[in-house]
Amino acid sequence: MEFDFTDAGLIQADRILRISTALGTDVLLAEKMDVREEINGLFEIIVDVKSKRTDVKPEELVGTLVDLSLEIAYGQRRPWNGLVTGLKEGPPVSRGLRSYSLTIRPQLWLLSQRSDCRIFMDMTALQIVETLLSEHGIKAAVTGGVVTPPAPVHYSVQWNETDLAYLTRRLEADGLFYWFEHEEGQHTLHVASHPFGYTKGPETEVRFAAGSTDRNHISQFSRHYAFTPGKRAGGDWNFEKPQGPQGATTPSLVSLPKNAEYELFHYPSKAMDQTSNDQASKLRMQAVEADHEKIEGSSTVRTLAAGRRFKPYEVAHADHQHEEYVVTAIVHEIVDSSYETGDGKLDYANSFIALPSRLPATPHRHTANPRIDGSQVAIVAGPAGEEIHPDEYGRIKVWFPWQRNRAKKDGSDTCWIRVMQSWAGGGFGAQVIPRIGMEVMVTYLEGDPDRPVVTGIVPNPSTKVPYKLPDNKTRTTLKTNTHKGDGFNELRFEDEASKEEVYIHAQKDMNLEILNDRRKRVERDQHEHIVRDKVAFVGGDHEEVIHGNVSIAVGSNKLTDYLMSRTSTIFGKLGSLMSDMRIPDPFNFAKGNYQIFIEKNKSEIVHGGSSEVVGVAKSTIVGNLMQTTVGKKKSLIVRGRYDADIGKVHNINVGEQFNIRVGKHIVISMSKEGDIVIKGKRIKFDADKIDEN
């Protein structure tokens, strides 16, 4: 049969390898195709085509879905579907055609074209898959092979990494493996955690015939065994359980000589409780065990695909029994030369790696965890109407500038973050809680974006320092602000030379508790101003030594204020003057004076005895009325002279008897009966007139 080299002969209807694109039927003709598929990786198809159009524009193909298919039997075809991510223009060829090369990948590859900084709260890896695929407009994944859903992660950060890197990292952490299944018009992501999730192809049993050239058989099949460690261990620190680090060790199911002596340990495991540590250690061990036994082979079986099960059998050696395997990676090489030769011959071969299907293809954690080196700024967050929003550990919530318009700024979309203090002990130490709106510095344990720690607070124009700078550069202060109020508490130090000062301000109460002694020394003056009351309770003795004067004014008016100031001044100046003139000051006017000024009343009650000793002189001035009441007996002893100056009337009322004694004798005696006795050696009357009644 003579081959038709006209355009009418350049069609794909009867071709073994076909391609369908947005350009239309038979515009592109597939000649060569290399396909790489694997579990835990993206497939990649590179197909060489001849185009009937020599001016194909990139926007006509790049970013569009294409279908490819390979004939596996009469009337049966194996499909591939993918996204054109690259177009390479080749030279013109014979018959007015131009060669092109297309690179085709899954739609999931689009996730590698978007990077972000983002926080995910309380989401599982499967929810991450669902969310990101939905955001990119990709068909939902098949997750029936996930036997036990992974636990949600409370706080997980995508940090300057692509959506694909973040998704892959989350899948690896939870031991989830994935691959793709193809059908005409679409391809689907499969995610599994158990061998139960592997799929079956059209041919579940495949003939193994070494060296054979027949179609659809395995020509090479070799087992490879690797030494693997006998233990996998990991641990992490949970501050809520400070007794020691959390950890777990999982022994391998693979038993080899001395492999039990070898352990792979990883820290931190990013697991905060024993259950999570056990699970993490188990998954890491499964990944190691999957490396122990692998199959490498080559075949012409066109139905082999990543994630599909197959079981080899041998016709020549029927007694050779093989277990079931799953393809973990495969490379297809396809050449269709029928457009040149017209004979319909196709060259096809593949090479593959397989794993016993009883084992899960648990991935290693190959995707690098992003690091944040150094510190970042953040703003303290909290509910509306609050100013301070900590938890029981003094942790706070923040929002980051890199959250862009996603940050709610009320703390509902972030985790509690520990705050570094200058000291922390068992119920003692320092406690400073950053307040909502403050700018804080955040660093990261191990550089891990998922493990932030607040290390300090920095001022900005919205949260300025307490005092204007540099005007007050010599001041060091700790000044707080009243919660939901306008007041403040402050401890301030002024270090300006000759103006040094320690200042304490209490907005309301100030309590000082000393369990033993307190000593206070003031080198110069002490001033104390109490607006209301002062109460002092002394359980034992009260002793005060005052070398100068004491002035006490009870009540306040202009007179007492004036007298208090003037008398202190007068005594002081008088003492200084006498000292300057070198005149003896026997009364020490400048020191030792005690003044009491009482605006209104004074009341003194002594339940026992009261005594008063005045060394020199005592003067009592009563402006109006003075009354002294003695219950039983009153004695007045004057060692020298006793003078009484009465301006008008002097009345003496005696209940029974009134005696006047001079020396040892009673001179005048009066009784209540009216008797008057005047007794003396000589009685002399000197008067202008004496009346007798």
Q: What value does the Rg take, in angstroms? A: 52 Å
Shape: rod-shaped
Could you tell me the mean pLDDT?
89
Number of strands: 33
Question: What would CATH call the architecture of the largest domain?
Answer: Roll
Q: What is the SS-derived class?
A: mainly beta
The number of distinct structural domains comes to: 5
Structure annotation, total helices: 6
Oligomer: single chain
What is the helix content?
under 10%
Low-confidence stretches: 1-6
Under CATH at level 1, the class of the largest domain stands as Mainly Beta
CATH topology description of the largest domain: Pnp Oxidase, Chain A
Q: How much β-strand is present in the residues?
A: 25-35%
Sheet of most strands: 12 strands, mixed
C-alpha end-to-end distance? 188 Å
